[in-house]
Amino acid sequence: MWCRQARGSVPRRLAAGGGRALAGPSQGAVSGELLRHLEHLALVDFRDREGVERLRGAIRFADRLREVNTDGVEPMDSVLEDRCLYLREDDVTEGNCTKELLNNAREKVEEYFVAPPGILCCPECDLQLVSHNSLFSVR
Amino acid sequence: MAAAALGCGGGWRRAWRRGLGGLVPVPIPIPIPALVHVAVPVPACRPPRVVARNAGGGAVPAGKSGLAPWVPVVGLEIHAQISSNSKLFSGSQVQFAAPPNSLVSFFDASLPGTLPVLNRRCVEAAVMTGLALNCSINKKSLFDRKHYFYADLPAGYQITQQRVPIAVNGSLSYSLCIDNKMSQMVTKTVRIKQIQLEQDSGKSLHDDSRSQTLVDLNRAGVGLMEVVMEPDMCCGEEAAAAVRELQLILQTLGSSQAIMAEGQLRVDANVSVHHPGEPYGVRTEVKNINSIRFLAKAIDYEIQRQIEELENGGTILNETRAFDSKLGCTVPMRDKEGMQDYRFMPEPNLPPLILYDTKSLPANVNHQQVVNIDWIHERLPDLPSAKRAKLVELFGILPEHSFTLVNEDGLTEFFENVLKQTQMKPKKVIGWILNDLLSYLKQHSCTVKESPVSSVLLADLLNLLEKKEISASAAKQVFEELWKGEGKTPLEIVKEKQLQLIEDREELEQICQAVIDEHEKEVMAIKAGNQKIVNKLIGLVQRATQGRSNPVLVKQILEKKLSE
Question: What ipTM describes this predicted complex?
């Protein structure tokens, strides 16, 4: 992440858990409820030991951001912030490629994509949702 | 937090009274000066009808606190589909009812490697709408991602404007008639929290028999303007009037065609009730409302349901409910596993949207790349409220008449066309337009464009009336004939049915004399001083002449004869 102003940007080595007050779990503590919530939101199953360890590691890594003093610095949320947002003319230039699009679909009915019924499943539901990213397995 | 600031002027005291067949709520509006700013000194909100009945058919009885007043709070979230050729972030076409997945680009299908490109027309539509609703236009607005999983949202997120939308802090004024009469109208205002640009999702068709969902992405990515209103309203009628006015404004601007039946205008209602002075109650969200009429019904039902639930000691769940139009009630829609967490994040692929005005416009700029708020402002068409004011000023008609004229598509034009071709005064013409033409149109479910009676024909008819060649009742008969659309002119019909006013004074005198002779009792009453009975005699003469006598003349003749 880049800071817009380089004021006080040298990270000070702080003891873990010290420094500015942290909101939320500190020292990588992740409650079971939070885990369930995250799994539900992301439709990802990672509640095994390795998954939780990785999550804790990720939180610890991200927490290091808090070591930087950002008082009075406006957050930057896009590296494109100084670019001009290009405006397109309102012309029809795309579409009409039903066949190509449906080529990718594992299942189709006439010219519709087919999806399983319902979506927001609790982890307890037995629903096979195959996403195009096979890295995720969903229970 | 103060109760609804600019909405209903008071709470309702629901005093339960034993009416015929059960308990009947009696509304007694109470002003609450400490909490509420009332724009108009009249609490115009009408209480809902009792729509909920228990299994036995009687009204649900009041709880222990039968006389505690309730303040309903209604807020609306309206999604209006932008009227444009192509979608918000891609070049695929926007069209209702096309072969499934034929209007879908690679971006709309969320294929990897595609990026959003903002459609200028959508920005202009949002700015126009913001200006028309008295909003402040944010010269810098941002795009965000709202994440949730659903089959018709291929990306797994919707691009919207959650942090800094394009327009904020506006207002919408609308009018209601009190007591169901058109004669008393009151103006109310609802605050607009914000207007934001966002993508529409595709459509899912649920096939329960085969346990699958069919997905059509034609609608995915179409530009939407979400108009968020503050909870300033208190009943279904107010919400319906506000939405109707918004619909008219959008259609006048052309930013959206706002046809609810085609899904171009979708309204979700947030409803809660509380006692005055207490914090707002738990709200429910009501969806699946397909017309303005159902909007009012759904809201009133939900208010009623919540009041009854609370009065019976129950609680209101913060849930989403769907309106079932056939049953006229709301039903829980999906299991609420707590509040949805959309994990909003800035859209990394889009820089901020910068808008300019004449002052901030940089020199040497490519005009195609710039949206100038002032330029758009100058070109705003007359809004419905301005049109109504003009009609009242130009033609001297009543405000409530102007509402009906502007409300009905094409009626104002029809009215103005008739005026151009007749000498009859606007105040008289408007009666024919609203009472005769409009009621026929409604009876036969026709639009003004489909009217078998054209403005030319009506003008001809009114001219005959104005020149006193026919009486008013004869004119109504002619109008009925004209409605059949057989191509005859008013004059032809008059001749055919012999509806011309009797010119021959002697003939009239004979008929009058005959009526006098046959109604001795009435004559005696008149001579004894009861002048009103003269009208009865006039009516009898009219009947005898089949509507072909001039009532003023008949009155003269009768009075002369009776005084002899």
Answer: 0.72
